[in-house]
Amino acid sequence: MTGALFAQSLVLGVLLGGLYALLAAGLTLYFGVMRVVMIAHSAFLILAAYLAWYFHETSGLDPLLSLVITVPLFFVVGYGMQRFLVSRLRPISLTTMSVLLTFAIALTIEGLLGFVWTGTQRRVQLGYSGTSIEVAGVSIAVVKLIAFALAAISLGALFVILRKTSFGRALRATTQHPEAARLVGIDTDRVAGLGFGLGLATAAIGGTALALDYTIYPSLHWHWIGPLMAIIVVGGLGSIPGAAIAALLLGVAASLLQVPLGTTWAQTVFYLALFVTLMIRPQGFFGGRLAQRF
Amino acid sequence: MPNASSPTAAPAPTRSGRPTAARVARIAGLLALVAVVLLFPSLAPDPFILSVGVVILSYAVLATSWNLVGGFTGYISLGHAAYSGLGGYATALLILRTGLDPWLALIAGGLIVALIAIPVGIASLRVRGASFVIVSIALVLILQLTFQSWHDFTGGSGGLRVPRPFGTEVLRPEQHERFFYLHAVLLALALLTWWAIERSRLGAGLKAIREDEDKAQALGVPTFAYKLTALVTSAFFTALGGGLYALWFGYLDPIFQFSILVGTYMVLMSLLGGVRSLFGPLLGAVVVGYAVEVFKSQYGDTQLHLVATGVLLGLVVLFMPDGVIPALTSFVNRRRRAASIREVSAEELANQREEAAR
Amino acid sequence: MTGSQGSVATQDLTKSFGGVRAIDGASVAFKEGEINALIGPNGSGKTTFFNCVTGMIRPDAGTVTYQDRDVTGLPPHRIARSGIGRSFQLCRVFPRLTVLENVLVAVQPHGLLQRLRGSRNAADVGRARELLARVGIDHLEHAEARDISYGQQKLLELAGVLMGDPHTIMLDEPAGGVNPALVERIADLVRELNAEGRTFIIVEHNMELVMGLSDHVVVFDRGRPIAQGTPAVVQDDPLVLEAYLGV
Ligand SMILES: Nc1ncnc2c1ncn2[C@@H]1O[C@H](COP(=O)(O)OP(=O)(O)OP(=O)(O)O)[C@@H](O)[C@H]1O
Ligand SMILES: [Mg+2]
Asked: Which fold has domain C84-165?
């Protein structure tokens, strides 16, 4: 591999890793607050991408503007999903049943997308779609930069919300010790609902970013959920910094491997990392005390 | 389960000491089931219906096999299509590459897949349910990826033709009939295995894991080894199911072999029928399998079947997580039992008061 | 099992959860063949201590020995096999199994063939029924565990533990949440079982019960023992009073 190619792949890896990081943060957030493996996360991601595409098709405006609608919408949907569906499940089998429930939601979304917009591949065409900028011999597509910036800003915002606000403190308390959190007067049900909403909002942002740069089709979410789940296990279930680090590392690794191996085989790095993690350190590599028991 | 073969224990310790009339009814039901299966091929009006019968039996095999791990341990595998797909490919590749006899290839394929399930289980069963689910989905996704891309070995996305075990002189309807019975035999074996485990000490341990894994460990159940045993057994039967289906269908396409949807069907069927009962998955397979086939022939391959599957799964999870069979039996049992328990508690309370007064 | 061996003992046992030191360098030795009590204020680490001893959680540091063998870090089922049975603080039974099935779980011998043997064989069932009769809930054997009362579940849990024929029995608050008559019954059972040669380690907040029942008392505060001895000695220890009254 030449130096230039290496640099190019590295940059692309970091850019992709940023998007993975945001999405994985959402996924691990649900797990933290509710012990729920939210399979439908990436289906919502694709839904958001479709909404961005549709928004652009019908209004002719920049798909980024669709965020104004999708982010609050997804937040409310996430809150409702937790309060009205997930919370109905029996605590004894919550982890497994919630997987099935969110899985069912994923299938339904995929089916509805196909039904409404057919299985045809869709792509947003923008004035700046083909534009790229060149820095030190590395050329970067503008859309990828925008997507990365969007992901980085959102991840930063998420971090601030969790670290600096009282809601964030309540949420972290709920994550770490739900009973204790209840004892000190935190309404853990409400916090879990809001946490879910926050997680789904990341899917809305990620989906919009995705729509800028990718060809989308209804079953695309399966290509995302696999790597995302691998990332949160490697990072340690429930740990947001862990998820972010793992996402960047694996994103870069996949991008670098893509050159010698091709796209398909490069994808396997996520699964390999998942397997190795579970074999030698099931609780994940970066934090994630929770994971031991799940 | 009936306890007829137990050499001992005069008042058979079955649940709620069922009266013999109920046991007679059960045996009659079982015989009726066997009769229906035996007679179906001659009753089927045309080869198409017979082929639907084969498909439904195949689903029943897969769902019952899935239930060997899902029902006993409560660990939900969404990617069990990995094992059926591998079983199909292993069988086909063994025939094609080594010239092995198809039936030996089928069994060898099952064993190979059981071996593959061991490291998968080791990675995913040491911790609780979440990692298991994640690995199960990841497995089917990675296999789909691999088998689509690895042209030289698996035929890639172009698919793989599976040699027919019966010569060309055996006509289609006859093929269907033979495979119908073969699937029935495999189903019977899977059911028998489930039944045998259910009443064994291993089964007692597995069910305890499903109810409360910590508690089971504290009582001396080697939970990891037990879970692994269940998974490997399940993978073995699932692979046989996949292999047998491949021999009948004659063609493998990675998209359909390693399909999330096939795994979903297994879960949905088992859950709908009831994961804690022997015949639950079979019942679910008949209902869902039939619905799927009708849906396909009526509406073609639209996206609506995804929606239907998704909505049905969601409804079952939310409103009937124990399935149809347990819902019915527990309804009957509770009505019968409720009275007696209350009686006893009252009596006991009186005793306790007496004691306290002393 | 000879009386000269040590029972459960720990050396510098430590376990933290995040910032909380639940067990803080605890070195304790319980007495073989006796009824030991482990007491201490809420949150003093008693349950965590139980969990470390029985392998449910891995201690950060320190060792656990049982009958002079190091059992630190062994998986729970191995520790159960070595002869330690335990109950849980908030009584835990298998909700959707019948009372009889609940008790039968504890028979998990070595060897594949033994494990594939029918769980409802005469020998196992006979013993299970005997134990159910002993704790006084044999008439409920066909009920599902989730349907019986809390007190009955406590008795069921005890029967389940006994089915494994443990030499040492660790009970986490056996009298918590049950009526006084049942407390008496449980106390009698403990005495009987102890007379048969079984060692007990009991966590309990009911002081009357502890003082009446136990031969040896260990007092925990903030994750380490602050006093031990006979009930009478411990009762008068100023440190204990301080820990309990929070002076
Ligand atoms: N799984 C856990 N995660 C985080 N903290 C824990 C966990 N288990 C226990 N703790 C903490 O460890 C400390 C000791 O708890 P433990 O349950 O052992 O006390 P205890 O003596 O049994 O109390 P009680 O008498 O109320 O049962 C407490 O501060 C508790 O909050
Ligand atoms: Mg406690």
From this structure: Rossmann fold (3.40.50)
Query: Where along chain C do its domains lie?
Result: 1-82+169-175+199-247, 84-165
Residue A273 lies in a domain: no
Whether this model's ipTM surpasses 0.85 comes out as yes
As a whole number of angstroms, the distance between CA B292 and CA A32 comes to 36
Q: Which CATH class is domain C1-82+169-175+199-247?
A: alpha beta
* Contacting residues of C for B9, CB less than 8 Å apart: 120-122, 125
Q: Which domain holds residue A69?
A: 9-219
Task: Name the residue type at position A188.
Answer: T
Contact between chains at A176 and C18 (C-beta distance less than 8 A): yes
- Residues of chain A neighbouring B75 (CB-CB closer than 8 A): 96
Min Cα–Cα distance to chain C from A287, Å: 11
B7, B13, B208 ranked by CB distance to C125: nearest: B13
Mutation target to probe the B interface, by most B beta carbons within 10 A, among A86, A275, A280, A289 is: A275
Looking at all shown ligands, the one closest to residue C41's CA atom is 1
Q: All domains of chain B, ordered by start, with CATH? A: 43-320 (1.10.3470)
User: A262's torsion region: left (phi>0), alpha (psi -120 to 50) or beta?
Assistant: left
What's this model's pTM, rounded to 2 decimal places? 0.89
- Would the CB atoms of C18 and A92 count as touching at under 8 Å? no
> With an 8 Å Cβ cutoff, are B6 and C118 in contact?
yes
Write out chain A's pLDDT in tens, 294 residues: 677 788 888 888 999 899 999 999 999 888 888 788 899 999 999 999 999 999 998 988 888 999 999 999 999 999 999 999 988 888 777 888 888 999 999 999 999 999 999 888 888 888 777 787 877 777 888 888 888 999 999 999 988 888 888 888 888 888 777 777 888 888 888 888 999 999 999 999 999 999 988 899 998 999 899 999 999 999 988 888 889 999 999 999 999 998 888 878 888 899 999 999 988 887 777 764 543 344
Q: Ligand 1: which residue has its CA nearest to atom 29?
A: C43
For the residues of B294-327, what is the DSSP string, one character each?
HHHHHH-S-THHHHHHHHHHHHHHHH-TT-HHHH
* Rounded CA separation B56/C64 (Å): 55
* Closest CA relative to residue C224, chosen from C40, C9, C33: C40
Ligand nearest to the CA of C43: 1
Distance from CA of A191 to the nearest CA of C (A): 21
CB contact under 8 A, C97 and B218: no
Alpha-carbon distance C120 to C157, whole Å?
19
Q: How many structural domains compose chain A?
A: 1
A278·B135 Cβ contact <8 A: yes
Q: What is the pLDDT of residues C195-220, one digit of tens each?
A: 999 999 999 988 888 888 999 999 99
What's the rounded Cα separation, in Å, for the pair C19 and A150? 35
User: Which residues 121-140 in chain B show a CB within 8 A of chain A?
Assistant: 122-124, 126-131, 133-135, 137-139
Given a contact cutoff of 8 angstroms between Cβ atoms, the answer to whether B243 and B57 are in contact is no
